[in-house]
Amino acid sequence: MIFSPLEILLCLAPFMLIVFTIGVGLYAQNVALARKEFERDTRKCPNCQKLLNPEAYICRFCRKELHEYIPARG
Ligand SMILES: [Zn+2]
Fold it and tell me: Cα(64) to centroid of ligand 1, in Å?
C-alpha cells in the first residue's frame, strides 16, 4: 500500500505540532531568561527611565547624579 503525500503529512501533523510547541516553549523560556539576565545587569535611571550600567554614577542620558539611588539587586 502506498501512501499519498497528503496522508503522510496528516499522519505526521500531530508530531510536528508537538515538536513545534516544544520549540516555541524553549524559545520563550530562553527569551525570558535572557531578559532576566539583562535586567539584572542593568538598572533604570529614576529620572529618565533609561537603562544604565549598575555602576553608573551619573546618568549618561539626562546627566542626573545617581549616587543617592541604590539599585534593587539580588
Ligand atoms: Zn537619566
Answer: 6
Q: Which residues surround ligand 1, an ion (CB under 5 A)?
A: 45, 47-48, 59, 61-62, 64
Question: Cα(45) to centroid of ligand 1, in Å?
Answer: 5
Distance (Å, rounded) from C-alpha 35 to C-alpha 50? 16
| 14-71 pLDDT per residue, tens | 999 999 999 999 999 999 998 888 777 788 898 999 988 888 889 999 999 887 655 5
The predicted model scores a pTM of 0.47
Q: Identify each DSSP E strand in 1-73 by its residue range.
A: 43-44, 51-52
Q: How far is the CA of 52 from the centre of ligand 1 (A)?
A: 8
